[in-house]
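agent> Task received from the user: take the single chain below, predict its 3D structure, and emit structure tokens. No templates, no multimer pairing.
agent> Plan: (1) validate residues, (2) run structure prediction, (3) serialize to tokens, (4) report one or two observations.
agent> Step 1 OK, no nonstandard residues flagged.
tool_call: predict_structure(input=
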Amino acid sequence: MSDAPLSVLFGALLVLILLSAFFSGSETGMMSLNRYRLRHLAEKKLRGAQRAQRLLERPDRLIGLILIGNNFVNILASSIATVIALRLFGEAGIAIAAGLLTLVILIFAEVAPKTVAALHPERVAFPASAVLMVLQRLLYPLVWAVNMLANGVLRVIGVSAEQAPSHSLSSEELRTVVNEAGALIPRRHQEMLLNILDLEKVTVEDIMVPRNEVVGIDLEDEWEEILEQLIHCQHTRLPVYRDSIDDVVGVLHARNVLSLLGTSVFDKERLIGLVREPYYVPEGTALHRQLLNFQRSRRRIGLVVDEYGDIQGLVTLEDILEEIIGEFTTDVSALSRDIHPQDDGSLLVDAGVTIRELNRLEGLDLPTDGPKTLNGLVLEYLENIPEAGTSLKLAGYPIEIVQTTGNAVKTVRILPRLDD
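)
tool_result: status=success, residues=420
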């Protein structure tokens, strides 16, 4: 090397610096690849993605290969720079060469290529993977020996390099991914995906129609009243019971009686014959589980029961779907029968409304981890039945009790949230 022309030494030094930049950029590019996008591209038979995926199956070997190459070219570059400095400046040139080479490698072989690779990992990693695959085969014995020694050190401290890293995402991490999708996923679709993730946190009792609001057919009523109810009822399916919802006979589908209405053959016995046996749902059932249960049993409506078998309310398939896609009823009045916006920006609300529905429709942030209805939330906070005119503050929202009954809050006014 000492007899080689300076032009050859400078050329060799330049090539080594470029190789150092290649190894540095390859390392950052390979490690910066999005593993889910990489898997997707590999499944689409993109050759560069397939090579990168194979290399990343054993990251310890990949890192070992890159570091062997990088250290080799850097040490060789240092030796050549020292020879050049001795020829040009004598012994004093060694310090000059060390300083200049350090600066050049830091800028052109480390910071610059790694920055480019971090910003555009696929553009760097996919072409580089072809070279790295060849080097891995050529240098396999050396890479294997280095990894054996390094992995032995790791095992001493309780780390196994052969365990594949887990790339599975938790529901909260998936939520972050969806939120950061930006324009890639329309906002409406993002909301639906987030609602699906929330299904496992919500139970049927959170969305059920409470038993005191369940609309059904009481067989103890006069036949004329039952006919009138069937003609004007807005619901497709109705529970049928005797005297009380606790004595349920079954569920009636309105379409089964349309052809019989107004005929002489239609009576209570015929009505009972059209009733399908009731379907019961435990009150703690998660919505994602109940959605599958409805699909499996081919049902669209269920009666929610507690641990004692007492009916607590009613849940439908539509209720669960609305938790995912939002309200889709064609009855405009149904959306606002419990919530009435006022000119001053406040809301006049029927306290029997569920907190989840109130939050969803009006964009509020009332707590949902306790009572399910607004009435229950107010009573839990006050610990008594308040009088009309009582005011309180819940989760930053000023609330005024407008009307009460003997054992419950009937109507409240919710004012805009106050900033703390």
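agent> Step 4: summary for the user.
The CA atoms of residues 390 and 401 lie 5 Å apart.
agent> Done.
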